[in-house]
Amino acid sequence: MASTGAPNRPLPPVVVQVRGEGALFTRPEQRVERVSYPVMTPSAAVGVLESIYWRPEFRWVPERIEVLRPIQQFSIFRNETHDLPSLADAVGKGKRIDTVANRDQRSALCLRDVEYRIHAQVELARHATKPAAAYRDQFRRRVTRGSCFQQPFLGTREFSADFFDRDDRAPITVNMDLGVMLHRIHYGPPARFDFFTAQLTAGVLHIPAQGIPGDAAMVAGVA
Predict the structure, then answer these.
(1) Is 175 helix (H, G, I), strand (E, B) or coil?
(2) Reported confidence tier of residue 222, pLDDT bands at 50, 70, 90
(3) What pTM does this model have?
């Protein structure tokens, strides 16, 4: 594996700012109506980073998320379908989704006029042939140019996001208990999920290096 730098001297995180007119970071315990966390989640941050720059040689590890605008909520009604074919049916059998016959209307509690500053590290895979600095520099160049593989979104694709280089604004001065939040998905097989107890401290969500595995989290009362 390529060297990531001097031992015990981690590189500073790369930083990108994202802004959008709306966002929906759905809480997993809300099984029918969609209710957003008050702030961006780590998994949503990873989605934004991968939209800008992704390679199989590394994965994104968010360290903290700064909230730059006041937390505002609004409600909407969204049309969703419960006719969701499996990947095998969709690809192998060409099954189509009948959204008209299988449509449900659900309310959603979303966020309005949001902006975040994401701090993240590059974690190299075993088969990486370049140092982490090469991927970090490429990411920074793409952010400055406004280049992306696909338009980033904030939780759901209907809420697209703009991204740009960081500025020096301070985060909002809000402390809040956010409850249990998804830390990381291990795609496996089999797929596994890690969780953590999230806190917003002076407008900053600090993400621990390690989450609690799903089974252990349930035993500990975290999930």
Answers:
(1) coil
(2) low
(3) 0.82
